[in-house]
């Protein structure tokens, strides 16, 4: 593209690039800067996290080892033991952040995250069913989590359907489904023997411990397939935030777009949960923080994904360093911090008269 003019219109954010052929492209400068900073945060924390553990490695040695210039011991620790865990954390955080941005835009509600809709609980129910009833292998548990999340997503969407799906009804149905699935999960734990119950409790805490390349490749494959689908519908998602009537008037196929994007959000959440267990509140918090930093309307898909990745990697580092020898599962730490954020969000929304 040969940009012939660079302008900034009054009342619009960012710069507009125009070509002599009549094409134009608006660049949100603040959003691009925030996105670059979030990418830098995620990468820096990834290097710090790889160097953290019983065998500490300096950040410069971590980078040198990643480029193939480390010692044999450093190469084994970095590339075989710690790098897969960090990659799983980045992919899980990005998947949850992206899924949260989609669901919050579709429901037009800052509380409408996959956590609130019960998708995480559905995945947990699928995994617990495999653990308790058939004592399945880790791969079978992951498959159970994926299936549970998909069935929950289909059930919530079908129950919320009444000549289309409205965001408010979707959130209410999701809250009910989450409560029911929480009860089911509790019942499954009471039916388990000691060994299975211990295994189930460890899984539902949400953790990145002992994650290896077997979790990286399936989750990466899901992201590679779904990201083009999501971003090809980004314009329709932005139009949906203005309401169904406005979206229809602008030529958006509302129900088809909503179904494709909700399906993508369900798959991203289910795949992330299958890889790391239920990691609470990242999908709720990441899109809200990204929107506040970019100060941009719309779903903020990319900033939400990078915010989710940065949050989860930072939380995993904190769970290893902030509690001494008593390391927390990362899901427990995000649950505590996310619960405090949810209370603040409820108070803020109530004061603003939106709930």
Please provide a written account of the structure.
Helices cover 71% and strands 4% of the residues. By secondary structure, it is mainly alpha-helical. A 3-stranded antiparallel sheet has the order 1-2-3.
Layout of helices and strands, plus pairs?
Elements: E1 3-7, E2 15-19, E3 24-27, H1 29-50, H2 59-66, H3 72-107, H4 119-134, H5 138-160, H6 167-191, H7 194-204, H8 213-232, H9 234-240, H10 244-249, H11 254-276, H12 282-294, H13 301-321, H14 330-351
Antiparallel strand pairs: 1-2, 2-3
Helix pairs in contact: 1-3, 1-13, 2-3, 3-8, 3-11, 3-12, 3-13, 4-5, 4-6, 4-7, 4-11, 5-6, 5-11, 8-11, 12-13
Q: How would you state the average pLDDT, rounded?
A: 85
Shape: globular
Contiguous runs where pLDDT drops below 50 for at least 5 residues: 1-12
Largest sheet features: 3 strands, antiparallel
Cα end-to-end separation = 46 Å
> Count of helices?
14
InterPro entries: ABC_BtuC-like, ABC_transptr_permease_BtuC
Membrane topology: Multi-pass membrane protein
Protein name: Iron chelate uptake ABC transporter family permease subunit
Main location: membrane
């Amino acid at each position: 593209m040969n940009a012939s003019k660079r302008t900034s219109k009054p009342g619009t954010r960012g710069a507009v690039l125009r070509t002599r052929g009549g094409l134009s492209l608006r660049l949100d400068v603040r959003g691009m800067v925030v996105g670059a900073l979030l990418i830098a945060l995620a990468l820096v924390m990834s290097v710090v996290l790889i160097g953290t553990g019983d065998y500490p490695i300096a950040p410069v040695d971590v980078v040198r080892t990643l480029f193939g210039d480390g010692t044999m011991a450093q190469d084994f620790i970095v590339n075989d033991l710690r790098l897969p865990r960090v990659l799983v954390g980045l992919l899980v955080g990005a998947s949850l952040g992206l899924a949260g941005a989609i669901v919050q835009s579709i429901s037009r509600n800052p509380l409408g995250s996959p956590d609130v809709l019960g998708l995480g609980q559905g995945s947990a129910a699928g995994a617990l069913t495999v653990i308790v009833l058939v004592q399945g292998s880790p791969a079978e548990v992951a498959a159970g989590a994926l299936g549970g999340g998909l069935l929950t997503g289909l059930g919530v969407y079908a129950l919320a359907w009444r000549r289309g799906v409205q965001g408010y009804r979707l959130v209410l149905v999701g809250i009910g489904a989450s409560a029911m699935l929480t009860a089911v999960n509790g019942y499954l734990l009471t039916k388990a023997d000691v060994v299975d119950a211990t295994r189930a409790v460890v899984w539902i805490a949400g953790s990145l411990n002992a994650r290896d390349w077997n979790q990286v490749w399936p989750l990466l494959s899901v992201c590679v397939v779904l990201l083009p689908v999501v971003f090809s519908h980004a314009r329709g998602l932005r139009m949906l935030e203005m309401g169904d009537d406005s979206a229809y008037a602008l030529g958006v196929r509302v129900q088809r777009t909503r179904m494709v994007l909700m399906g993508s959000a369900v798959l991203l959440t289910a795949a992330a949960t299958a890889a790391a267990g239920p990691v609470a509140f990242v999908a709720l918090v990441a899109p809200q923080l990204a929107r506040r930093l970019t100060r941009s309307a719309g779903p903020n898909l990319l900033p939400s994904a990078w915010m989710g990745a940065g949050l989860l990697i930072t939380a995993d580092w904190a769970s290893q360093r902030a509690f001494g020898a008593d390391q927390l599962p990362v899901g427990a730490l995000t649950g505590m911090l996310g619960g405090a954020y949810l209370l603040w969000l409820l108070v803020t929304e109530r004061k603003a008269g939106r709930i």
